[in-house]
Specification:
Blueprint (H helix, E strand, L loop, with lengths): L2 H34 L7 H19 L2 H23 L6 H19 L13 E3 L7 H6 L1 E3 L2 H17 L1 H11 L1 H6 L4 H25 L13 H11 L4 H23 L6 H4 L2 H13 L18
């Protein structure tokens, strides 16, 4: 390859990491908050798909992308809240309920979203970061989602809240020891339902960024398993909101390798490189989920020794 092609390839991967990584960021932050409270939500795939459809429909019907974003976030919060309420019932398993909610969310999205496959909705504005360069390739690659700075601010806010606020301490306490939380007079179920709903709201922002920025349309294959990948991403980030930013960009960059290579005229291996995020997920699960051991940073209520 020529020097210009290498520059274009690098720019494509970096730009792709920022675009593709944005949904990963919001979904991983939502799952991080949920798991910090001691609950796991495997239904995030359903949350992501339903919120993506709701955001696109909201933007299409109102003519405002920001109202669409709000609609997607609220849809995600409602489905996640349902998960939280069901899991608070006696003898209800988090994992089984999450799988059921994933099927419910995707089924609802596919059914209600049939009329939205062809129409176009107003898109979230892009923030140009490549104005310093005279290269049109760099300028195009560095058009970032306006939701990305919000996601980074949200990660910093969560990190600060977990470390410095009473609310954050209660969420961590419920995740580490339900008995200690009850002994202090707090409702474990109430804390977990609130954290799960808030996590669904954040994941809904990720769904909105899928249909209202990149790829910017609604179709039934929009998610490609990103909601499930986010669970592994949170483990990789060791349940740290700040590390979720780096992990999301890593997964985003991995997902952008194939399109970036195709953009510079390299056709071989395109579909192979598209599998990189899934391979990363498998590697993370193999090296972090070892029998008889607890991952560093894992909330106590999620550990295998519970």
């Amino acid at each position: 390859m020529t020097a210009d092609q290498w520059v274009a390839l690098f720019a494509g991967i970096v730009g792709g990491a920022l675009r593709v990584g944005t949904p990963f960021l919001f979904v991983s932050l939502g799952e991080c908050l949920t798991e910090k409270s001691g609950r796991i939500n495997l239904g995030l795939e359903g949350v992501l798909v339903l919120s993506a459809m709701s955001a696109f429909g909201g933007a299409y019907l109102t003519g405002s992308p920001w109202l669409g974003v709000l609609a997607g976030a609220c849809a995600g919060a409602l489905l996640a809240a349902l998960h939280g309420v069901l899991c608070s019932l006696p003898r209800v398993n988090d994992v089984a309920t999450g799988i059921a909610l994933m099927l419910l969310g995707t089924g609802l999205a596919f059914y209600l979203g049939k009329p939205l496959i062809q129409p176009q909705a107003p898109q979230i504005p892009a923030i140009p970061l490549g104005g310093w360069s005279g290269s049109s390739v760099l300028q195009s690659a560095l058009q970032i989602n306006a939701l990305l700075p919000i996601g980074i601010a949200l990660a910093v806010g969560l990190w600060w809240a977990f470390a410095r606020t009473r609310w954050g301490l209660l969420v961590r306490l419920a995740g580490d020891s339900a008995n200690a939380t009850r002994a202090l007079g707090y409702s474990v179920s109430g804390i977990r339902i609130a954290a799960t709903a808030a996590g669904g709201f954040m994941a809904g922002l990720g769904g909105a960024s899928l249909t209202l920025f990149y790829p910017g349309s609604w179709n039934e294959g929009i998610s490609s398993g990103q909601g499930l990948i986010a669970v592994a991403l949170v483990i990789f980030a060791r349940w740290s909101p700040l590390r979720c930013v780096g992990a999301a960009m890593l997964f985003g960059g991995a997902g952008a390798i194939g399109p970036a290579m195709q953009s510079v005229g390299i056709g071989w291996g395109y579909h192979l490189f598209n599998t990189v995020p899934y391979v990363l997920t498998l590697v993370i699960l193999v090296f972090t989920c070892k029998p008889g051991s607890v991952a560093v940073g894992s909330p106590g209520e999620l550990s295998s020794t519970r």
